[in-house]
Amino acid sequence: MNDRCDARVFADWHSYQCSRKGIHHENGKKYCGTHLPSRVVARQEKKRKKWDKEWDAKKAVWAQEKKDQKWGEIGPKLLKVCKSALDEHERFDEGSSDLAKELRTIIDKAEVI
Ligand SMILES: [Zn+2]
Questions:
Q1: How many domains does the chain have?
Q2: Fewer Cβ atoms within 10 A, N terminus or C terminus of the chain?
Q3: Over the stretch 17-45, which tens digit does the pLDDT of each residue have?
Q4: pTM: predicted TM-score of the whole model, two decimal places
Q5: pLDDT tens digits for 45-64?
Q6: What is the 17 CA–ligand 1 centroid distance (Å)?
Q7: Sign of the alpha-carbon dihedral angle for 76, 71, 73, 77
């Protein structure tokens, strides 16, 4: 009876028994440290969590890029409409209100961007 790890190792189109010593016991079989089923599952879970985290980060970047692109398309139009509305408001209303002054400040800053 050999003391080799009972795991099958897959390579290309065939598989073979792992050549390492089976020093751990699990599910009635012998395993090396690499193929011990509980360690394999733990490694896969760790990788999956890492991939999920990277995927979430990518999705967040793409969502922000999409938002920026939309704002890039809408922003100038919105700015133009707000400026026209404010010009109109100031033509009919002598002495601007605080809200109008604040809006004028924001528009002036936005036009510099
Ligand atoms: Zn092994």
A1: 1
A2: N
A3: 999 999 999 999 999 999 999 999 999 99
A4: 0.61
A5: 999 999 999 999 999 999 99
A6: 8
A7: negative
